């Protein structure tokens, strides 16, 4: 192996997904020299195996479902989706798994890219094993940033290795529609992929160990999504665990704890995530390999003055947009410390504090219906000791919803802190509600008083008029 001389940078970033790219963008904008290390494709999980391909698969399914709810249009969209066209469109959105455009972007901001596997090798030092056997040694004057993301976590089940199950990667990159698909799990990946592949023609069976789908949202979110999946022809079984799996020829067989035998062509396990930190040299700086990294609100690893962990690896909020938000915070904090400028640590909503990770995390689940939430659920708010009231609205009562879709079904909830009269959380479920959630994020993050929200007048007739119904519900209770 050929080793180069040590090269010094102000900042070294491990991982060139959206999070690492955003850290590099912010540190370069501050005038700091920055190196980025990536072992796979520049652009990361989101660009090639998660956000982008999954939404490219889901968009035709959602658009068709919406069209079928519009009088005068539904008869024109009764046929099946053109699966090859959908998959080709997905391939276009992932740039056919080529990262030339992302590399050009890094070049454009002036960051240096190192291809290969990067590992910590003591404080402020990173070694990179390149694809052709070369070995680079990088040192960081100010910060090393770990933004290597997470990977699918597979359960320890008899026969699983031989079955070669799908994870989220295979589910979003498959080049053919399986005739039968088993989806194990009830979270975001499970519900979105069940929605997408059912719409593309798969006979889908969803096996959920818990009581329902989307357990981290308000209970009605999972109930409405499960109802819609069943109406679309999926078999959704709750309270069901997989005890073993085998592959008999081309057929996957899943055995459940209740003794059922379910056959399929493929099986997707969407049962959790693990940090990609097991081979990063964490032990060389006194940290546990394979662990989530504990950080403060500036994203600095607790106990370190130079190591940062941004995105999934810190386990604060496993969402691309939240990781990019953290990247902006971390980049600003690194730049301030490098310049000797005091951090705004006294301001919980300041430029150097990722406060939204605790108070205002938004998420959209692109199922049919969509489910969108920000902040705390009712149960979370009560568990945290807040004195709260939940206000619920059947979204079919909103004029704009009825125009959006004939027979519109959906529900909204806002959780009000009664002592401060601000919103702690908002949840919407229904067609098209993903576009409503940013208004809720502003209300929650901005701690906008209920009295002021009365003066944010929703346009008529739009689905956003649900805000008026929620506020009336609070006033009239």
From TrEMBL:
The organism's place on the tree of life at top rank: Bacteria
Classification via Pfam families: Pyr_redox_2 (PF07992), Pyr_redox_dim (PF02852)
Enzyme Commission number(s): 1.-.-.-
Keyword Protease: no
Keywords: FAD, Flavoprotein, NAD, Oxidoreductase
PANTHER family, sorted: DIHYDROLIPOYL DEHYDROGENASE, MITOCHONDRIAL, DISULFIDE OXIDOREDUCTASE
Name this polypeptide is given: Dihydrolipoyl dehydrogenase family protein
Organism in which the protein naturally occurs: Streptomyces lutosisoli
